[in-house]
Amino acid sequence: MSDKTDALEKILEQESLFHGKYLHVERLGIQLKDGRTGDREIVRVPDAVALLPVDEDGTVHLVRQHRPAIGRTLVEIPAGLLDDGEGEEEAAVRECEEEIGYVPRKLERLISYAHAEGYSTGFITLFLGTELDYTGRFHFDASEYVEQVKMPFGELFDLVEKNEAVDSKTILSTLLCAHRFMD
Prior knowledge:
The protein is α+β, with helices and mostly antiparallel strands. The protein is 20% helix and 45% strand. The protein folds into two domains: 4-44, no CATH class; 48-181, Alpha-Beta Complex (Nucleoside Triphosphate Pyrophosphohydrolase). It starts with 8 loop residues before the first strand and ends with a helix.
């Protein structure tokens, strides 16, 4: 694993290009180890969590929502940003309840990964949530429309294999848990 002390690029200048509610875009003037210079555009975003909720009979609880950046409506696992001062586990449980109305009694951290490492600072931490308790407490953002979707784990795995599930958090969590829920 690399850290900033052995960087192959030196930052010469930093310029803020855009600052929005969710993201901040910067231009970095850099110098490569061999002396050449160039620019990097960096998107700074908050970290996020996502949770694969699976009940005792292997049913996966998902959400369907439109993603305007790619112009598609996706079926995906519940996910969201960490609130200020909130831990990853707390955020995963909160997002699960807000989006599907269930709280997992058992939570297992699967992996944390950079979701767009070529240009973004964001990391997503994935969890598996089991032993689900239904609370019925949904809470969507004012600009969000989300539908709940249930299916057997095997059906979700098929969506991943057929390239019908295209978001990284759903693909990774499904593949990481396949050995647990597939016959």
